[in-house]
Amino acid sequence: MSGKDAQAGNALWGGRFASGPGAIMEEINASIDVDKRLADQDIAGSLAHVAMLAATGIVSEADAEAITGGLHKVKAEIDAGDFPFSRALEDIHMNIESRLKDLIGEPAGRLHTARSRNDQVATDFKLWVRDALDALDAELADLQAAFVDRAAEHADTVMPGFTHLQSAQPVTFGHHCLAYVEMLARDRGRLRDARRRMNESPLGAAALAGTAFPIDREMTAAALGFDGPMHNSLDAVSARDFALEALAAAAICATHLSRFAEELVIWCSAPFGFVSLSDEYTTGSSIMPQKKNPDAAELVRAKVGRIVGDLNTLLIVMKGVPLAYSKDMQEDKPPVFDAMAALSLCVRASAGMVRDLTVKKDAMRALASKGHTTATDLADWLVREAGLPFRDAHHITGAAVKAAEGLGKEIADMNLAELKAVDPRIEASALDVLTVDRSVASRMSLGGTAPDRVREEAGRWKALLEATA
Length: 469
Ligand code: ARG
Fold this sequence. Notes:
Elements: H1 23-29, H2 32-35, H3 39-55, H4 61-80, H5 92-104, H6 117-153, E1 158-163, E2 166-172, H7 173-198, E3 200-201, H8 217-223, E4 228-229, H9 233-238, H10 241-268, E5 275-276, H11 295-318, H12 333-356, E6 358-359, H13 361-368, H14 375-386, H15 390-407, H16 416-422, H17 429-432, H18 436-442, H19 451-468
Parallel strand pairs: 3-4
Antiparallel strand pairs: 1-2, 5-6
Helix pairs in contact: 3-4, 3-6, 3-8, 4-5, 6-7, 6-12, 6-19, 7-10, 7-19, 10-11, 10-12, 11-12, 14-15
The protein binds arginine.
């Protein structure tokens, strides 16, 4: 059946129509190519609905049994890949109902009692988003676990910490890994908040006004794992903020992953050489035989673009749509499907790269002390041991850096005489604080980069992740 052939056409709503839709109408209107992905959710929603219709006496037990059996058959056909999807039937809801009618005949027509596609699609889509958020949470937990393992392994691997991408102070690679564990924890928190807030059932709102049938919305809500029914039928069919919130959380998470991806790209470059990725996560160049490109990292870095774009798309789709349902809202699914798939891939690829990467400790250490990165430690020494105000200590240390540059060396390589020439209050014990190992070890403040702290934190995270797995 297609276009005009559907004729008066559509068995599901064709009563007042003399002909089927034109070809362009069908093309712009049909959503089946996209929303066929809601098949499982649609069937779950219908099973819950029909059980409720029987329990409340709105349909007979016999009809409910026929419908339930038929829905299972439809599901089996879809799972087996031999379901006859039809564009003329617009969307997943009508495709399934129409097939149900082929399979069981007359009782199929009773399934849609006290229901509309408007509450049906809102329910299906919520179930889908909820599953996607759960899957994402597990993937993010795995990525955190990957970072935590590397953090424990590299609790005392020194590397330069950067601000403005200028060498700032030495940190440990483990500490750097744990920064991402924290970000990802907040990402998971945002996704879980979204899930908690969205977990109310639209089913039973019907088209927009509720229904005159004595339905039991608590029953369908419970059957579908919702905390309860939504309390306003207009809101129930109109709301898509659950999808927006999921996309917003996804966009923030993707932004975090893009920062890690960018760091990987930098770290893999020859001038840095901090890490290398194996053949599994790199590609070669067709012209330059020596090349090993971190394509996976670059793609993670890039995919944030489409995920933020997806959020933007749905924000703009929803802007200004009057209550209650309008067909605009059919455009809600492509951006959500796209963003969730892209983010899932980014999370999995990131976890793969975290586990895959080889840390080049020597290269990290060599750069960790370049650029006078322990200058702050000298200033701190002047405050602690010589009793100077920090501002004065900062000034003296600046002069020491200038002197080091004049001598063509790093501040950490100056001898006592050279330092005393800058300020006579500098003593031999100041030389000790200028090494990168002493520098990181001294940063024992809560949340600091000291290896002991990093080991503690890695342990805390490992236990936390195991306890919540
Ligand atoms: N395919 C539609 C969507 O995804 C289902 C709801 C249609 N409702 C309607 N009143 N035409 O939004």
